[in-house]
Write a structure and sequence with these properties.
9 strands, 13 helices, Hypothetical Protein Yqey, Chain: A, domain1, three-stranded antiparallel sheet, Pseudouridine synthase, about 325 residues, alpha+beta, 2 domains, four-stranded antiparallel sheet
Length: about 325
């Protein structure tokens, strides 16, 4: 295998097929450049953020900005349209919704398609690098009303990303609204979901239940000792919402979105249906270390810092970096 800037080193043999199930987490080494603060201030600010995160019990386990598209955040919008069975809207969002930060040639082609709805003409205008859009356009040029068929020209691994992105968007809203409501992330209330934390540090796939009022003290003691964790639903046709106040938050958000859990059983394209599940509200920050604070050779009169850390699988390094860096412009920062 030859991929630029990637080196693969064999470490041994495995008896079964490798899958994400066997992944514990990901280790990161990050360089943050062009920092205006002094070395002492940089170190103090990092220490303050990490101390706050450790006191909370981890980083809020949001899905990262890139899950929805950084330059052109439409993945979850397409997913919502698919969930609602509106394949025409889904296709036009994917093909024709433009954003100011994408390449001008791409933006112009999308805007022209939005105005004309002419798929044959769009085939000539869309740049070659928009490979998947061109696959759909080729189908629509022949069958201009078959939007479902146009989506089926895309690989299943790409198509499933759309409803999964909307599922992630809903989770982020559940978590955001909980924080805004003043509910804790490192403790549970009656009606909240809890999951057991395995010795590996990963949440158990087997032990998940709703916290009862009678067991709150016992459960919160287990959370404080790292044996359990608050979890929130990943929406799906088999996943019940939380109960109690958190459940009311989730119901309100689904009502605002005009969505029911049954919608995740996608009619007309069942392979994109999502059963749902649970995701921990916090993710642990492991092995954090400030490797070096020094002058930035690429930015005169600025400093840089090298950090390293590990996150369990499924968690986003960019979420921690946002806590650390507080980027004012997510587009420019890339997260």
């Amino acid at each position: 295998m030859r991929v630029e800037d990637i080196k693969i080193v064999p470490i041994g043999y495995f008896k079964t097929k490798l899958s994400p199930y066997y992944l514990l987490g990901n280790s990161f080494k990050i360089v943050v450049r062009a920092i205006s603060y002094t070395k002492a201030v940089i170190r103090q600010r990092i220490e303050n953020v990490v101390k706050e995160i450790k006191a909370l019990g981890g980083v809020p386990n949001f899905f990262g900005h890139q899950r929805f598209g950084t330059i052109r955040p439409i993945t979850h919008l397409v997913g919502k349209a698919i969930i609602r069975g509106d394949f025409r809207r889904a296709a036009m969002l994917f093909l024709a919704k433009s954003y100011p930060f994408e390449h001008p040639e791409s933006r112009t082609a999308r805007e022209e398609l939005y105005r004309t709805q002419d798929f044959r003409k769009a085939m000539k205008a869309f740049p070659k690098h928009l490979y998947y859009e061109r696959l759909m356009l080729k189908h629509l040029a022949k069958k201009p009303h078959d939007f479902k068929g146009a989506f089926k020209t895309l690989p299943i691994k790409l198509r499933i990303l759309f409803p999964q992105a909307y599922q992630a968007y809903l989770f982020n809203k559940f978590l955001s609204r909980r924080i805004a409501s003043g509910l804790p992330l490192n403790a549970v209330e009656a009606g909240d979901y809890i999951v057991k934390i395995e010795v590996t540090g990963l949440p158990s796939e087997r032990f998940r239940e709703i916290a009862s009022r009678e067991k709150l003290s016992e459960i919160n003691s287990a959370i404080a000792s790292g044996k359990m964790c608050l979890a929130l639903p990943l929406a799906g046709f088999r996943q019940r919402l939380s109960e109690g106040f958190q459940g009311e938050i989730e119901k309100q958000i689904l009502e605002e979105e005009g969505i029911t859990l049954e919608n995740f059983k996608v009619k007309g394209m069942p392979e994109l249906s999502l059963k749902g599940g649970l995701r921990t509200a916090l993710t642990a920050l492991k092995d954090f270390k400030v490797e070096e604070i020094s002058k930035d050779p690429f930015n005169p009169r600025k400093n840089m810092v090298k950090i390293s850390f590990t996150l369990y699988r499924g968690s986003y390094a960019t979420i921690f970096l946002r806590e650390l860096m507080k980027p004012r412009n997510p587009i420019k920062a890339g997260f």
